[in-house]
Amino acid sequence: MKYYEVKFHVQAPTPLLTDACDVLSALAGEAGFESFENTDYGITGYVQQSLFQRNLLDSLLAGFPMEDVSVSYEVTEAEDRDWNQQWEETGFDPIPIGLGRRFLIHDGRHLAGYNVADYEMPIEIDARLAFGTGNHETTCMILGLLLDMDLTGKRVLDCGCGTGILSIAALMTGAQAAVGYDIDEWSVDNSRHNAVINRVDSQFTPLLGDATVLDTVEGDFDLVLANISRNTLLADMDRFCQKLAHGGRLVLSGFYSEDKPLLTAKASSLGLRLVCEKTNGPWQCLSFQKEPTARRRSC
């Protein structure tokens, strides 16, 4: 799989630089970018060559929503790397989620100061080249919501499954079965690998493709999870709703708080009611119910 490496140079007043880079990564995500690294000059982004939407990126940068900020970039073909070796060398520190030692997200190697046996549901994630270790605010918010749900016997759909972390967590909290899909073949293979590590592979079905793959999936789902970019959420929400059972929950994240009006308006047009919302820094998570009498609550 071939990638472009794009070096984004950000000119901004020092107090605004961090926020500007956060906004930039969100905009670049809408143009197909999958991962980013912080640099002294801004950020470096990585995008599959076949998915790079350069015209869209230029349009988004032309309307950059922060004053006194300018962004330029240069594109090169990313060098071939041994991504697995790189991950082995870096990994991530354990991430506890939930009161009372519920989830512990870990890589199986960097466990100094943590005893996996002390946690109710330890989840080992070998992330390789896929998004989703639990260290991003959007993933953390959804994992927190899963702990508050009764998923016993439920079917779960994981849209843009990445490492499979959300499906694995849902299965560990009582879900009967989970189906995940992703446009990245690496992610599909990685999610299958992580399901095996966590001994839930018999309940997990990973699929390669975009939302159109749902046309081949039978039955409805009690819970649909989608932690992806705003534009993809808006484009695919109709399909999510079609696969959502009456009374089921649709949980969305991967977007900024200022995007909430667009997403709630789209959901409302599909007969979905906002029942719960969370924020973590600039990021937001929204939960909708396919039931006209649902009432909004805090969470």
Protein topology:
Elements: E1 3-11, H1 17-30, E2 33-38, E3 42-48, H2 54-62, E4 70-77, H3 83-90, E5 95-97, E6 103-106, E7 121-124, H4 137-147, E8 155-159, H5 165-172, E9 177-182, H6 185-197, E10 204-208, E11 221-227, H7 230-243, E12 244-256, H8 260-269, E13 273-280, E14 283-289
Parallel strand pairs: 6-7, 8-9, 8-11, 9-10, 11-12
Antiparallel strand pairs: 1-3, 1-4, 2-3, 5-6, 12-14, 13-14
Helix pairs in contact: 1-2, 7-8
Describe the structure in your own words.
The mean pLDDT is 88. Helix 5 (165-172) links the parallel strand 8 and strand 9 (177-182). With 299 residues, this protein is of the alpha/beta class. It starts with a strand and ends in a 10-residue tail after the last strand. It has a seven-stranded mixed β-sheet with strand order 10-9-8-11-12-14-13, with helices on both faces. The protein is built from eight helices and 14 strands. It folds into two domains: 3-80, Alpha-Beta Plaits, CATH 3.30.70.2170; 130-289, Vaccinia Virus protein VP39 (Rossmann fold, 3-Layer(aba) Sandwich), CATH 3.40.50. 29% of the residues lie in helices and 31% in strands. The longest helix is centred in the N-terminal third of the chain and has 14 residues, at 17-30. The chain has helices at residues 17-30, 54-62, 83-90, 137-147, 165-172, 185-197, 230-243, 260-269, and strands spanning 3-11, 33-38, 42-48, 70-77, 95-97, 103-106, 121-124, 155-159, 177-182, 204-208, 221-227, 244-256, 273-280, 283-289.
